[in-house]
Amino acid sequence: MCIRDRAEKVLRERDRVIAQAEEEAERIVQLAQEEAGAMVEEHEIIRAAEQRGQTVMERANREAEVMRAEADEYARQVLLSLDSQLDVLEAQLAGLLSTVRNGLETLNREPETEVAELE
Questions:
Q1: Residue 18 in contact with residue 71, Cβ under 8 Å?
Q2: What percentage of the chain carries pLDDT values higher than 90?
């Protein structure tokens, strides 16, 4: 699996986690709304249901935010690791490129040197 594929996989996983958190928040809100609708008979019950719905919504939003932050941090750590690995790879490639160019330069000079020695 190449580095780009790994990065894309991490980002897809992050998006999946965020989508799950949002779906869970919507489900919790829906449950809270259904629960509140069933309690409309008494004013005090309505007030309690509204408070409960607000509490559930706040909790769901906090949990979604925590999941989003954790997913972002995970993605950031993976991307930092990939960046570091790419720096190492870039340095290795620069060394190989230098070796190849030095070899070509040497090979390009050798025929001239051999011709001069033959004369």
A1: yes
A2: 39
Tell me, letter by letter, the H, E, C secondary structure of 10-74: HHHHHHHHHHHHHHHHHHHHHHHHHHHHCCCCCHHHHHHHHHHHHHHHHHHHHHHHHHHHHHHHH
Q: Compute CA distances 92 → 32, 53, 81, 87, 95, whole Å.
A: 58, 58, 17, 9, 5
Question: 17 lies in which domain range?
Answer: 3-118
How many degrees, rounded to 5, is the angle at CA 79 between CA 81 and CA 68? 125
At residue 42, φ and ψ (nearest 5 deg) are: -120, 145
> What per-residue confidence (pLDDT) applies to 98?
95
**Considering its fold, how many domains does the chain have in total?**
1
What does pTM read for this prediction?
A: 0.46
Q: How confident is the model at residue 29 (pLDDT cuts 50, 70, 90)?
A: confident
Could you tell me if 81 and 27 are in contact, meaning their C-beta atoms sit under 8 angstroms apart? no
